[in-house]
Amino acid sequence: MNDTRFDLAVVGAGIVGVSCALWAQMRGLRVLLVDENPPGTGVSFGNAGTIANYACVPVNSPGIIRSLPSLLFSKESPLGFDWLYALRNLPWMMAFLRNCSADKVRHTTDQLGGLLSYTDSGLDPLITEADAEDLIVSNDCLYVYATKAGFDAAATGIEGRRRNGVKFDLLDGDAIRELEPALKLLFHKGLLYRGARHVSNPQALVERFHSRFVANGGTWVQTKVTATSPEDDGVTVELADDTKLFAHHAVIAAGAHSKSITGSGVSDLPLDTERGHNIVFKNHAHLLSRPVGWGDAGFYATPMDTGLRLAGTVEIAGLQKPKSPERIAFLVRRAHQMFGDIGAPDEEWLGFRPTMPDALPVIGRSHRSDKILFAFGHQHIGMTLAGITGRIIADLAQDRMPNFDISAFDPKRFTGRF
Ligand SMILES: Cc1cc2nc3c(=O)[nH]c(=O)nc-3n(C[C@H](O)[C@H](O)[C@H](O)COP(=O)(O)OP(=O)(O)OC[C@H]3O[C@@H](n4cnc5c(N)ncnc54)[C@H](O)[C@@H]3O)c2cc1C
After folding, report:
1. pLDDT of 14-55, one tens digit each?
2. Which atom of ligand 1 is nearest to the CA of 17?
3. Which amino acid residue places its CA nearest to atom 19 of ligand 1?
4. What sign for the dihedral angle of Cα 276, 281, 287, 288?
């Protein structure tokens, strides 16, 4: 590496980090991108691929408290728990539950709705710059409910989407089957999000952004970042081999692992993970023409270049435990209910969604230093929000204010108490 001084150092080459790096580069900044792993091999690898500009409703809901016993103890629940982990992280759990009140959920929904309205203006310039149009499929997105009870329970969320201008058609079981004839289960109701797009290979999208960043002259280093130390005029970025680099700004975009970088202030914030799993049936992508989210089961089935991927569910169990056989078995059972006997999956995967207890991402300046920026906590919609996050970070790195209010995502909302 010839340069050791940069305008912006980006820590993390998931979809959020590469989007920050490419946006900043497109604005003319000299950018360093560092990750200990190859690009797009974190949680950005295995997601459901939806560019879910309609997904403003958080997992938090008043209903979750009422249905907690069945959610926690049923094998058929989309939510799984490691009790010991949950007890050790009681402050986060309590903060999550406090954010389940009707007022808080309305706040989160409306703030996410506002940010999601910038999805296309954040992502499309990157897709064009990286020549990645071939990875984007425009064929709407279907969200279905198997039971009347499941659909009724979603009423407040559906209203929240409508309030935020999300456009959808309401479908009955026959209309759903007409759209996706391979579905064996007759669903009760569905919502068709018109105009929604999906990515046919999420990792390939990260790689495409990364390759263009490097081809345009960006500096890429594959190693672990251990610390960021604020200076008067910038930030020293310390690498695992003790190399020290300097940048006028550094952005922490290391997803659920962002606390591993000392000195930045992330460890003061309530960042935790919602673990998600996927299974892939390599030869069955032809069964669907668009992503189908099964609302009351908490996952999407998405046709991808690599096969039919069922991705989702939530498990609160931290970063250390391996894949959960129960979560995988849940997805396999649901796959067989949806499509009949399509055999055993060819691949199984676990990923760590970065999640704050209020379900809002953290995008802004660290409480420790104006020179350290944060871009993590994008929970279930990080691929969707990566582009607009990158645009905001490029603004902040240029000491410009974004052209809309980002105060709801400010790290300082947690200072003192969460
Ligand atoms: C099952 C599932 C389905 C999902 N479906 C969707 C969907 O359909 N649509 C959607 O928009 N979102 C979806 N998501 C969410 C989305 O995948 C995430 O929000 C997003 O990928 C987060 O990206 P990231 O860049 O923050 O994190 P990551 O992709 O995890 O990237 C973080 C990077 O930081 C690196 N790193 C960590 N520590 C260090 C360090 N100390 N030094 C250097 N590098 C470091 C890691 O190696 C990693 O590459 C889904 C998630 C799951 C689990």
Report:
1. 999 999 999 999 999 999 999 999 999 999 999 999 999 999
2. 25
3. 382
4. positive
Block residue for tokens 């002259």: 217
Cα–Cα–Cα angle for 96, 99, 101, nearest 5°?
130
| Total-model pTM | 0.98
Rounded distance from Cα 37 to ligand 1 centre (Å): 12
Domain assignments of the chain as residue spans, ordered by start: 5-44+204-268+359-414, 58-100+135-197+271-355
Strands of 323-409, DSSP E? 347-355, 362-365, 372-376
Ligand 1: centre distance to CA 91 (Å):
24
- How many residues belong to the chain? 418
Q: What contacts 5, CB < 8 A, 6 or more positions away?
A: 30, 245, 246, 247
Residues framing ligand 1 (Cβ under 6 A): 11-17, 34-37, 41-44, 47-50, 52, 224-225, 253-255, 257, 260-261, 276, 278, 300, 311-312, 351, 353-354, 376, 378-384
**343-367 average pLDDT score:** 98
Return the C-alpha torsion angle 307, 167, 183, 189, nearest 10. Answer: 150
Query: Of all atoms in ligand 1, which is nearest to the CA of residue 224?
Result: 42
Q: Residue whose CA is closest, atom 52 of ligand 1?
A: 47
Q: Which fold has domain 58-100+135-197+271-355?
A: D-Amino Acid Oxidase; Chain A, domain 2 (3.30.9)
d(CA 156, CA 417): 28
